[in-house]
Amino acid sequence: MSVPAVDPEIQILLDTADTGVFPVYGLDAVLADPQRYALLRALPETPVDGQVEVRDLYIPGPGGQLRLRVYRPGTAEDLPVILYVHGGAYTYGSPEAEEGRSLRYARDARAVVVSVDYRLAPEHPFPAAADDAYAALTWIAANAAELGGDPARIAVAGGSAGGNIAASTVLRARDQAGPHVLFQSLTYPGVDGSLASASAREFTDTPVLDRGALELAVRYYAKDSHTDPYASPIRAADLSGLPPTYIAVAEIDPLRDEGRDYAARLSAAGVTTELVQVPGAVHGFDLLFPQARISERNLADQVRALRDALHP
How many beta carbons lie within 10 A of that of residue 25, not counting itself? Predict the structure, then answer.
């Protein structure tokens, strides 16, 4: 399989990126070194949006106190709630690291966004992150009024590793008769820990996420549990009864084909599913390079899907 061409604007941004501690090439070397990936856990300075109130809440979690970062637009009405799960190869990242996306969802999808600060691997392997996200979902459903939220309109969203954990959370809610989830939005999700798809096998040296980094991320998180459906949602025997789903994949991404395969399985199970493949996009394109035209178009599309589902 030949690797498609990177979008020209994204390629320029890759070539000129001031990446600091995050490399746009060679993430595998960072994940192989605890001192280097520890640097990616530092909380960055966050953007300011005068239309959205941001605050932290702390709730009881499976591993102790669990932090939720809440984004609420300034309005008196009850709003739908989006549980957001950040990415970071299961190993780094934070709500703050993806604050731009959370602010965008809150403002433009007109929703309360709750971003969960889940425990990270390898110190806390599966099911720690999945348990934290599910605890956040159950707390949101029981305490929506405290957030100015509507418990009848809850969505779950996440990207990359967060897309895996988001999909796991939605599966668990169905299996355990937990909170009703109205919609799920998964952006370039990792849903198959076997790494056996064509793109995972053959896209070995792609920007941002390469095969070596993907192998380390799955090893740190799932260890020997990657066949568990809550670690690899595509392994679930039955996907029926899940909420309508939006999946966006990047064309030049080892995770591309498992996202496409998950969309196909959802659709075959009778789940209303929208799949978008962003041409010329690399993993994390909309977070790393939000100024690019393909990033803006897809961010707007993510918002459109959430808004239409939560404000029917």
Answer: 14
The structure's pTM equals 0.97
Distance between CA atoms of residues 19 and 151, nearest Å: 39
According to DSSP, the β-strands at 79-85 and 112-116 are: parallel
Catalytic residue, from 115, 257, 283, 295: name it: 283
Query: Strands 149-159 and 245-252: what pairing?
Result: unpaired
| Given the residues 253, 257, 286, 295, the one annotated as active site | 253
Which of 160, 185, 199, 232 does the annotation list as catalytic?
Answer: 160
Residue 115 pairs in a beta bridge with 69, 84
**For this structure, is 194 an active site residue?**
no
Helical pair 161-175 and 128-142, crossing angle rounded to 10 deg: 60
Categorize the per-residue pLDDT at 70 as very low, low, confident or very high, splitting at 50, 70 and 90. Answer: very high
Q: 127-160 pLDDT, tens per residue?
A: 999 999 999 999 999 999 999 999 999 999 999 9
What type of residue is 146? E
- What phi, psi does 182 have (nearest 5°)? -80, -25
Residue 160 is among the residues annotated as catalytic for this protein: yes
Mean pLDDT throughout 228-236?
A: 97
267: which 2 tokens?
């659709």
168 is catalytic: no
